[in-house]
Amino acid sequence: MGLFSKKPKNPIDKVLETIHTSLTVRNEIRDGKVFVPSWRVTIEPSFQQTDSDQMAVIDFHITCPDWDGRMYECCASGGKDFDTAVGLAMGSFTLCFLPTFSAMMNGDYAEPFESEFVGKTHRWEFYTGDVVGIGENMGVKSFFDLISEGVRKRLGNQRIAYVKVFASKGVNANGESALTGEVRINDFAVPELGKIVEEYAAKWDVACGSFSSAKQFFFLKQESETLLPYPFSSEKREPMLLVCVKKTLDLILELDTSKNLSVIKGDIEQLAGDKTIAEELFSFLPEICAERLLTRQMEFDEQIMFSNGSDSHTVYKSQLMDYYTLGDMMFYLFSVGIFGERTDELAQKLVGYSSSYAGLCNAMQGGFNSNSGKLHSRLMFNVSEDFEIR
Q: Is the pLDDT of residue 301 over 70?
């Protein structure tokens, strides 16, 4: 029997009730969200539209004003009917994500973990979730030994970080296998680690006509002693950055394409009020836009090099506080139509100002053809002596 006896008029109410009753800490349902006062955490679920009454896809957005960002989890499942599909999708959230998340928020069962970022050591409370899956999970107790070093070198100075691992293997009646290996750090895919997980799943002995999968979460909370200061408080950071992204894009939209982007650099510094954020806006936004729109022609490296003339550092994008945050904000503004009919014009301008696009143009002039493969791009930013990699 499914989670519900019949498809409710508003299934989100049942999803909220399931989260409410699954949490062991006091919480309340407010305006389509579950709020946990002692954690200052809000969990907001929503359904994605699907073409099937036998499929449920539920998004969960988890926010807290004490964090530097937000968490996101998507749980999808099919079933014999909508009720069953919702029940299975909710089971994935309440059995896999929620217990380990709750342990982190309560400070239960932590293990020590260390990483290094730009020459500084960061210490973490590390929380390991249970492996939850479908079918036989082939004796998987934890994925972390497979990916621990890869995760370690991708951690920066965040207050909170989380890792999702998913592996599956299906074998059809002809003995042909379909494999999935996915690792996401703060919800951004890490193909290098995903490949390791996929190779591990390939060794599972799955019978013909069967399917097995396994999912696991890891949460990390940085100790306050190693957390380096950010120029704005956690609560002010997101609204401040969103304003800066919007005003920077306004400046770029009105810039004559015959002029170099550097002519508005001073204006960006003035509106940001922080030299590092100003340089991030100036440098990151065009490249992030190119990274999203040139995927057919290019593959983009996880790493970035920063050079100030006398010194250089190479870091992973996932280590940077603002890289993916600024990109999310930019594409959010695009999606809500804030730039109206000029959205495409703005996106084209941004791509045109990127070094990735310049590299692609140079390669094409040299005979590169994207039909025969993708051009690899690794970014290098020349920054001022005052720039802080954070």
A: yes
Query: Per-domain residue ranges for the chain?
Result: 1-102, 109-228, 234-382
Question: What is the CATH code for 1-102?
Answer: 3.30.160
Q: Are 14 and 8 in contact (CB under 8 A)?
A: yes
Count of helix runs (H) and strand runs (E) in the chain: 11, 15
Torsion of CA 343, 345, 351, 352, to 10 degrees: -160
Q: Are 197 and 167 in contact (CB under 8 A)?
A: yes
Which H helix or E strand runs over 241?
helix 234-253
**Model confidence pLDDT, tens digit, residues 154-173:** 999 999 999 999 999 999 99
Average pLDDT, the chain: 92
Residue type, 350: L
Interatomic CA distance for residues 317 and 323, integer angstroms:
7
Tens-place pLDDT, residues 182-198: 999 999 999 999 999 99
Which strands, in side-by-side order, build the sheet including 55-63? 28-30, 33-36, 41-47, 55-63, 71-78
Least reliable range by pLDDT among 137-141, 147-151, 329-333: 137-141
**Share in percent of the chain as helix, strand, coil (round to 5):** 40, 30, 35
What residues contact 348, with CB distance under 8 A and at least 6 apart? none
Is the separation of the CB atoms in 318 and 156 below 8 Å?
yes
Q: Are 57 and 76 in contact (CB under 8 A)?
A: yes
3-state secondary structure at position 294: coil
Backbone angles phi, psi at 15, to 5 degrees: -65, -45
